[in-house]
Design a protein that fits this description.
Blueprint (H helix, E strand, L loop, with lengths): L1 H24 L5 E7 L18 H8 L1 E8 L4 H10 L16 H8 L3 H11 L11 H7 L3 E7 L8 H7 L3 E5 L12 E4 L2 E4 L19 H7 L8 H15 L5 E6 L20 H8 L6 H30 L6 E7 L39 E2 L6 E2 L10 H4 E7 L8 E3 L3 E2 L3 H9 L13 H5 L8 E3 L4 E3 L3 E6 L2 E6 L15 H14 L8
């Protein structure tokens, strides 16, 4: 009998060992947390070279993971978010529509019920998704993930509960209207189809501050706090941490789509940590393009970046508190490049003559933060980029991207591979162990993260612009072809369309095929 018992014991032990070994080889689906900043250029982050504004929590993600230097997204909020959630580039026709904003403000002013708002918002939608369309949260939900988003919901433009359900969201808290999301003190946010009141807030337009930096405007703009008590980003963070706690035993996909640091600038006075900063004050005191009022706004803007960084730190701390750090991949990225919300003449950033230096050739202040600078692969050097948000120049469409997954990804790696914001869908499909839906443009960057051989992009398509893996860029402006070798000319100063006819012809063929083309499956 002893021999029989021993044999059974050994067999059981072997089975348990095999089971444990299999578990080690095939880990459970990782949690995926995508933190999406609003209008944040690479140059605003310490890990990409910023020295004035401190971003220790975001920098730590880069130290513990992989930092990309060639990640691209759209110059506008809506197409950037739509392409991310659909896995297709933003230059297709008939892929998504920009539903007009401002409807939530109208609904509040006119006293609409939730049902009335739902009906009117649905009627305003342009292109309706076909039954075979698959969205990123929908794909992950089918793979067993519980899905949630917080902040500017979906495209960032007007959405509604039915659309959010169709896209595959189990849970959401935030703004359903991008116009309202430009204010930080809404009277309510939306939570799973219901209104979530924010204590002490009374403004239908969310208390949006005017972009007025004339003499004496700061006190008028900042001094009146009536109806502005609860800062919406605090509520969205609180709801995010609560969701993580409640769903810690399930694979989670969280899209933290904050409206920080989008302007107009607004930060609770107690959190204006850069108020009186001597470098900012000195820089704007004598600038012809600005004044001390612009300096005060720049201080608030820097404090908004600080606020976002602290929120990133709170999310990471919650991951550690729940013991999920080895099972959670965190991605930090942005929808667009930098915008100078603290200047009176921000329109000057729309053209090729705008670069990321502190001053221009005449000594006039451009941007104290140098937010549209970036590391571009030239020995990791920081260089100026042309243009800002609203342009398809490098400063408008090249964005930060950092991926951290302790225990799985290498630490402190810098990746110069070409990545588009719509590639998240294919990468997350890889991580979830599911097939990508048909008709998408996304290509997984998983092997790039792990340093393994795999598919690398020959080119990406962003905002009717072709960018190639070997460092060329083609777009059209005012009927003229613009061809740049951005690997050598990241400031886009030298149009080579006439001098490089073979390169022009090569990229024109891609442009004709991709930019403005209909999707193959639609």
């Amino acid at each position: 009998m002893m021999h029989t018992f021993l044999r059974l014991f050994l067999q059981t032990a072997l089975l348990m060992t095999a089971s444990l070994s299999q578990a080690a080889v095939t880990p459970p689906k990782p949690n995926i947390i995508l933190i999406y900043a609003d209008d944040m250029g690479m140059g605003l982050l310490g890990c990409y070279g910023e020295s004035l504004v401190k971003t220790p929590n975001i920098d730590r993600l880069a130290e513990q993971g992989v930092m990309f230097t060639r990640c691209y997204s759209s110059q506008y909020c809506c197409p950037a978010r739509a392409s991310l959630l659909m896995g297709v580039h933003d230059s297709h026709s008939k892929s998504y529509s920009e539903t007009p904003g401002g409807l939530v403000i109208t609904a509040e002013k006119q006293g609409w019920s939730n049902e009335e708002f739902e009906q009117k918002a649905a009627r305003r939608a342009g292109i309706k998704p076909t039954p075979q369309e698959v969205f990123l949260p929908e794909m992950l939900k089918k793979a067993g993930y519980v899905t949630a988003q917080f902040g500017k919901l979906d495209w960032g433009f007007t959405t509604w509960h039915g659309e959010l359900q169709r896209h595959g969201w189990d849970h959401y808290v935030g703004y359903m209207d991008h116009v309202r999301a430009h204010g930080y003190y809404p009277s309510f946010l939306w939570k799973n189809g219901e209104r979530l009141p924010l204590e002490g807030n009374t403004h239908a337009d969310a208390g949006k501050t005017p972009e007025n930096y004339s003499q004496g405007a700061t006190e008028k703009r900042r001094g009146n706090r009536e109806g502005k008590v609860t800062y919406a980003p605090d509520v969205m963070l609180r709801e995010t941490l609560k969701f993580m706690e409640e769903n810690r035993k399930k694979p989670m996909f969280i899209f933290f789509s904050t409206n920080l640091p989008h302007g107009p600038v607004d930060i609770p006075p107690a959190e204006n940590v850069y108020a009186g900063n001597p470098e900012i004050r000195k820089a704007y005191a004598n600038a012809s393009g600005g004044n001390k009022e612009c300096g005060a706004a720049a201080e608030e803007y820097a404090s908004m970046v600080d606020k976002l960084d602290r929120q990133v730190g709170a999310i990471v701390a919650q991951v550690h508190k729940l013991g999920l750090e080895k099972h959670t991949m965190i991605i930090f990225a942005s929808d667009n490049g930098h915008e100078i919300y603290y200047r009176t003449d921000k329109g000057r950033g729309r053209g090729l003559d705008y670069h990321g230096g502190v001053v221009d050739k005449n000594g006039e202040l451009l941007d104290i933060f140098r937010g549209n600078r970036g590391k571009v692969g030239l020995k990791n050097a920081m260089v100026n980029l042309a243009g800002l948000k609203w342009t398809n120049h490098e400063g408008g469409i090249r964005v930060p991207m950092i991926v951290s997954w302790p225990g799985t990804l290498p630490h402190g790696k810098v990746c110069h591979g070409l990545v588009a914001n719509y590639d998240h869908m294919a990468t997350f499909a890889d991580l979830a162990g599911v097939r990508m839906p048909e008709g998408k443009d996304a290509v997984s960057y998983k092997n790039m993260l792990l340093g393994k051989p795999g598919q690398l992009r020959d080119y990406i398509v962003i905002d009717h612009t072709i960018i190639t893996g070997d460092g060329w860029k083609l777009t059209m402006k005012n009927g003229q072809w613009l061809l740049f070798q951005i690997s050598r000319d990241p400031e886009e100063r030298n149009n080579l369309a006439e001098k490089q006819p073979k390169q022009l012809e090569r990229l024109q063929a891609i442009y004709k095929k991709e930019a403005g083309s209909p999707r193959k499956d639609r």
